[in-house]
Design goal:
This protein is an alpha+beta fold and about 325 residues long. The chain is built from nine helices and 17 strands. It comes from Roseiterribacter gracilis.
């Protein structure tokens, strides 16, 4: 990956004495769409702020397109930002909101006009130039923010939870808008989210962070199906995780691993070597979700709704098939 467009070398970021990110190494190729995924407080936003130049690393280097930018001011980095907290200016028209960055760069008026109008058209907002932000829907306002980020023709685009204020339908709409723009502009993008579905849907590569460190870096397919350890597995929906030591008393293990994880739909209900009691059953339409009390503790299972049903309190057999299990490494201490 020596041809990476963006590279973080052993970057450490602090707020006073708090170390938010420690010795982070990260490379993003030209045209690549990378998602930073992790729980609240793991250092996603801090990392983005450092790439944008809003926070100076206390150690390490940041390289963009071969040039060390560690000490370069934010406005000299050609990095586009769309942060959830970067609201639009309420008293400026949509056009002026988008034109803002171009005015700062002192471009000629005619160029500003052409580029702002073009950026608005590219996010599907042609004709809204003279409106005020409050006259637009939440989704349209997010698109203005997106137009504002791309109008300066950044070399790299950073999106920090850009869809978190939107309802489910608008999120879907904006998601495809962002994918389309990324293909069209062929810009490297880093997208911060704590929502695994969003990361899976959008990114070429997902980096899972925890407590200022990278837990796993891989394609959506790998992160989804082959989480490395218990932390990543839980984060992407493996709800039943049992250590090999615990399982060894009941089953022949398929190979060495610290633990094994199953998603709810990997658990077999109604047949199998284990016994439990149904503590809860929720009908979800296509499927039924069961909470089964067992010798392993509570097990969450999700089975097709047309399979035989089991009511609360009933004894039920179940299986945790190794063929569907993810073998997991132990977590590093946080
Ligand atoms: N301005 C600040 N001053 C002191 N500590 C901070 C500051 N901003 C963040 N931190 C701390 O740095 C760590 C990383 O925070 P950061 O905001 O990067 O996390 P995040 O992964 O983006 O979380 P979220 O998803 O909640 O935005 C946290 O422990 C947080 O408490």
């Amino acid at each position: 990956m020596s041809d990476a467009f963006l590279r973080l070398h052993d970057v450490t970021l602090r707020y006073g004495r708090t170390i938010a990110v420690e010795k982070l190494n990260l490379a993003v190729s030209a045209g690549e769409f990378v998602a930073l995924l992790g729980p609240s407080g793991c250092g996603k936003t801090t990392t983005m702020r450092a790439i944008a130049g809003l926070l100076k690393p206390s150690a390490g280097r940041i390289v963009i397109d071969g040039a060390d930018v560690t000490r370069v001011a934010p406005n000299k980095r050609d990095v586009g930002l769309m942060f959830q907290s970067y609201a639009l200016f309420p008293h400026l028209t949509v056009f002026e909101n988008v034109a803002f960055g171009l005015r700062l760069r002192k471009l000629p008026d005619a160029d500003i006009k052409t580029r702002a109008i073009q950026a608005l058209a590219s996010v599907g907002l042609a004709g809204t130039e003279e409106k005020l932000p409050k006259e637009l829907s939440g989704g349209q306002q997010q698109r203005v923010a997106l137009a504002r980020a791309i109008v300066v023709r950044p070399r790299l685009l950073l999106l920090d939870e850009p869809l978190s204020n939107l309802d489910a339908r608008l999120r879907l709409e904006m998601r495809s808008e962002i994918t389309r723009l990324q293909r069209e502009l062929n810009l490297p993008m880093i997208y911060v989210t704590h929502d695994q579905v969003e990361a899976l849907a959008l990114a070429d590569r997902i980096i899972v962070m925890r407590a200022g460190r990278i837990e796993q870096d891989g394609t959506p397919e790998v992160i989804y199906a082959k989480p490395r350890n218990e932390f990543v597995a839980r984060f992407v929906g493996f709800e039943t995780i049992l250590t090999a030591a615990r399982l060894a008393a009941h089953a022949r293990l398929p190979g060495p691993a610290y633990a094994f994880g199953w998603r709810p739909r990997h658990v077999v209900v109604g047949t199998g070597p284990y016994q439990g009691h149904v503590r809860g059953a929720s009908y979800l339409g296509e499927t039924v979700e069961y909470l089964i009390e067992s010798e392993f503790g509570p097990i969450k299972a999700e089975v097709a709704a047309d399979a035989p049903r089991h009511g609360p309190g009933q004894a039920v057999a179940f299986d945790l098939p190794f063929a569907r299990a993810a073998p997991l490494a132990a977590d590093l201490p946080a």
